[in-house]
Structures are given as structure tokens and as C-alpha cells.
Design brief:
The protein is built from 16 helices and 15 strands. The protein is an alpha/beta fold and about 475 residues long. Strands 4-11-10-9-8-5-6-7 form an eight-stranded mixed sheet, with helices on both faces. It has a four-stranded antiparallel sheet with strand order 12-13-15-14, with helices on one face. Strands 1-3-2 form a three-stranded antiparallel sheet. The structure holds pyridoxal-5'-phosphate (PLP).
Length: about 475
């Protein structure tokens, strides 16, 4: 730390602590420099700094004096300097909303672990060398428009690429104008909730469901109304019987998170019909719809809506890698300008150079090729994973058949000490999570929620055996 900064710090401290009371005349810079064996410029710089900050005043002919600062403020700050704890009071509290958001738990992933973290794609299979070239070239020869505040709502070529991808693969009805690029589907959920909900608004959410959705809705002050999920998707009849009409219905119709159920066409139509009656919004989170292993995927719900009440969210986290932090919303025409402005105000714009690289990645066909490869790979991994579970975990869990997604549910066959199971697997390097925390209402059927897509086949068997041993130990010594 430069000497003049040390000196000004010591003098400032002395003012705060009252050792240099207001009005005190400081020695001349020459004599203080001689006393402290410092250069005169060091003292002059320190004095100048404190004059600029308002601690000292230099009066021509009268030297440099400590100014008259308010007593109370000085003594309060000197107390906090003494205790080193800031104010003696615990400090202002968070808002009720802030506390609620903080209390919405999140499963935190451990870096470097693959089995059986949820939500992770096959990171080892992503073409990083190719991606690095595209990012480098976007930066090396930047189009000046990607270095400023242009492209509100997202880089135009990327929005065009996304719109065309969504129209052809997801049946989403949209133009590039309706696509808003944001920093992750989480940001998409957050901005959508803030834009369409007033505090206290009723929102139907899937139960069990994604914690991030709950967090975003809470941040918007929504009233969360859990609606159970059956084999056809969100049970709307239950919602109608138990809850007031919603302002918003949030769901993951392509591959319900976490149960992996695809909402049937008749349920989708009923949902749209009910939203029309209730004049409600629908937020369709299509986070991993690309991964369907049998038959053709059902088109997005958004494509069935003719009243502009569906907001559609998709992400590159599952098709590329989560740290990319690029996702998108498709919003009805009438809201486009407001959403574009909103993402500027909330600071949720994805970096433009990355958006430019991504547009190239899609336009040159690399994205579609990577998706095709991953679809085949995840189908194989799912098949192998189910085989291993049947081989090693029979009697402990049962897996309902699923043909989509990146993770599977394995229901417990018997009551289990979950904490112990999770801790034992964790100690052996395997991450397990359960369905319980994903429920808002009581969890009637608990089980494991296992991500397999990011686990190479070579690591899978060892990891499944670790889980099997953890179950086995519990069976042998139930109250260990
Ligand atoms: C259902 C669901 N929605 C949204 C997200 C958020 O995705 P992103 O990484 O784009 O924020 C996830 C991530 O796991 C998810 O599982």
C-alpha cells in the first residue's frame, strides 16, 4: 500500500476515534514529513486526499485543520471501527420477499462430479475446440454492434436462428422479433414472472416441480398453488377443485420436471381451454424438450395457443452446457417492447459476443449435428442406466418407463433413511437427490431423482454399485 495511503488512513482513523477532534490544526507538511522520515510529497498527497474527502480543510494562512463533522456520525463510525463488526445493531434485515427467496432451497452441484447430478448434459462430448474458434473469431473481428448496447432483446441473427429452429423442431409460432435472449431459463422465468404478476397473484405450479420456478415466482411475490401431476401431466381438474382461478399456470409439458411425464395432447388442449376461461397466462418451460428417444416429440403448447397467452422459455444449458448462460423467451407480439426494455432494466442480457458465436454455431449446422449426436448418446445412456438399475437396485427402487429427458425417477420400494443414503453415496463420490424437496405439498411417493445423461457408460456401473451398497448397508443395519 503506498505510503501516502497508509498515512491518510492513519489520520482518518484518528479523526474517527476522536484523537484528532474537530478544529485540530495539523503540523505543516514539512514538519510532519521530517518527524515521520517521509518525503514531503507523501504528506502533501495524504493531506490532499483527506481534504478531498472532507476530513480536513486547508485554510490559507491558517494551516490544515480537522473539519467539523457531525459528532454522532463520527462516534458511531468509530465504534464500528473498534469492534470491526460494522454497526452494533445487526444491520438492516432483508425484505420478506428476499428472505423467502433465500429460503427456497437449491441442490448445489459438486464440481467435477458426474454421477448422478441432475440437469447436466454430457460435458465431455461438447465440441469445445470448434466452439472456442467461433468465440475467438467473434471477438477477434467484432462487428461493432456487438460491443455496445445494440440488439436489445438479443443479437438479431441469433434471434432469427432460434426462431427458425423453434418453428421447425418445436412447432412454436413465432418471428425473430418475439424471441428475447436472456441469461438462462432461470432469468426467463424471473422476468416473465415479474412482467405478468402483481404481488399476491395466484399461480398454479406443478407439484413436484422445479425449485427455480418457485424461487422466481416468490421473487415476484406470487401466491403458489401446488397442482399434482399424474400420468397425463398437470392435473387441471384437481387445480379447479382446490384452488382459485390462476393468473398464471407454470408447467414443463414436454418432459415434466422431475417426473419425466409428457403432457398428453388432450391435457394440453384442456389446459389451453381452461386458461382461456380463466383469462390466465401460461408459462411453458421447455428446458429439455430436445431429448425424446422414441417417436416424434409433441409440439410445444405455445403452438396450440391462438390467444397470445403462452410465454415460452427454452435454454441452451441442456443442449450445450449450463455455464454458457444463454436462453430465450418467446413472448406474444403485444409484449415484445416491454420485455425488451425490462431485460435492460433487470440486467439479464446475455453477452453479445457469445450470442454472435452461438448464431454462427447454429447457422453452420453444428448445433443440429450436436443435438442429433446427443440424442443418440443419451438414449444409449438411458438404456444402459435402466439395465444397471434393474440389475443392482432391484428390490430397492422401481423405475417407471420413460423415453425422454436427461434424468430418471426411481421410486423407493421400502421406507428409507434418506439422509443416511445420500451421505453414504456422497462419501463415495456419488451425488443423489430425492423428490421430497421438490414437493410443495406432502410428498406421497418419494424416490431418487437421478441424472444419467452426463455420466459416461464406463463410470455408470461403479456408481450404480455404490448406490446399491448404500441401500444394502441400510437393509443389514437399519438403525446404524
Ligand atoms: C425445469 C428447468 N427449468 C429451468 C432450468 C434453468 O435452466 P438455465 O440453466 O437455463 O437457467 C432448469 C435447469 O436445470 C430446469 O431443470
Amino acid at each position: 500500500v503506498p505510503l501516502y495511503v497508509q498515512l491518510s488512513g492513519a489520520l482518518r482513523d484518528a479523526v474517527h476515534r476522536g484523537r484528532l477532534p474537530p478544529g485540530t490544526c495539523l503540523p505543516s507538511s514539512r514538519s510532519l514529513a521530517a518527524d515521520l522520515s517521509l518525503g514531503r510529497n507523501t504528506v502533501i498527497n495524504a493531506y490532499d486526499q483527506l481534504v478531498a474527502e472532507g476530513y480536513l480543510a486547508a485554510v490559507v494562512g491558517a494551516g490544515t485543520r480537522v473539519t467539523n463533522l457531525p459528532k454522532g456520525a463520527l462516534s458511531a463510525s468509530s465504534r464500528s471501527l473498534r469492534t470491526g463488526r460494522g454497526n452494533l445493531s445487526p444491520g438492516p434485515s432483508l425484505s420478506e420477499r428476499g428472505k423467502e427467496i433465500g429460503a427456497t432451497g437449491r441442490v448445489s452441484a459438486k464440481p467435477g462430479r458426474r454421477a448422478f447430478q441432475t440437469g447436466l448434459p454430457a460435458l465431455d462430448e461438447f465440441p469445445f475446440a470448434l466452439w472456442a474458434r467461433l468465440v475467438a473469431s467473434a471477438i477477434r473481428r467484432p462487428d461493432p454492434s456487438i460491443l455496445g448496447y445494440h440488439h436489445s432483446g438479443g443479437y438479431r441473427p441469433l434471434r432469427e436462428a432460434i426462431a427458425s429452429h423453434l418453428r421447425s423442431t418445436r412447432g412454436v409460432q413465432c418471428t425473430a422479433d418475439q424471441v428475447i435472449v436472456v441469461t438462462g431459463a432461470q432469468a426467463a422465468l424471473d422476468i416473465a414472472a415479474r412482467m405478468i404478476l402483481d404481488p399476491g397473484a395466484n399461480v398454479w405450479i406443478e407439484d413436484p416441480g422445479y425449485l427455480g420456478t418457485r424461487g422466481a415466482l416468490r421473487a415476484a411475490g406470487a401466491r403458489l398453488l401446488p397442482v399434482p401431476v399424474d400420468e397425463e401431466g398437470m392435473d387441471i381438474e384437481h387445480g379447479r377443485a382446490c384452488h382459485p382461478p390462476p393468473r398464471l399456470i407454470c408447467l414443463t409439458p414436454s418432459c415434466q420436471f422431475p417426473l419425466g411425464i409428457t403432457t398428453t395432447l388432450s391435457r394440453r388442449l384442456a389446459l389451453i381451454e381452461w386458461a382461456n376461461q380463466a383469462d390466465a397466462w401460461i408459462l411453458e418451460d421447455d428446458y429439455d424438450s430436445e431429448y425424446r428417444y422414441e417417436g416424434r416429440p409433441l409440439s410445444a403448447l405455445q403452438g396450440l395457443d391462438s390467444n397470445g397467452r403462452v410465454i415460452y422459455a427454452g435454454t441452451f444449458s441442456k443442449t450445450m452446457f449450463p455455464a454458457l448462460r444463454v436462453a430465450y423467451l418467446v413472448v406474444p407480439d403485444r409484449c415484445v417492447d416491454d420485455f425488451r426494455t425490462a431485460i435492460r432494466h433487470t440486467g439479464q442480457e446475455a453477452p453479445l459476443p457469445l450470442q454472435a458465436a452461438l448464431a454462427e454455431f447454429i447457422d453452420r449446422g453444428h448445433y443440429a449435428a450436436h443435438l442429433r449426436r446427443m440424442r443418440r448418446l443419451y438414449a444409449q445412456r438411458q438404456h444402459r442406466f435402466v439395465e444397471l438399475c434393474e440389475q443392482h437396485l432391484a428390490g430397492y427402487v422401481s423405475l417407471p418407463p420413460r423415453d425422454a429427458g436427461m434424468q430418471l425417477v426411481a421410486y423407493f420400494e421400502h421406507p428409507v433413511d434418506r439422509e443416511r443414503l445420500l451421505a453414504e453415496a456422497d462419501a463415495q463420490g456419488v451425488t443423489l437427490s430425492t423428490l421430497g424437496p421438490l414437493h410443495l405439498d406432502a410428498c406421497r411417493r418419494d424416490g431418487l431423482f437421478l441424472g444419467y445423461a452426463g455420466v459416461p457408460e464406463g463410470e455408470m456401473e461403479t456408481a450404480v454399485r455404490i448406490v446399491a451398497r448404500a441401500f444394502e448397508r441400510q437393509r443389514r443395519a437399519p438403525r446404524d
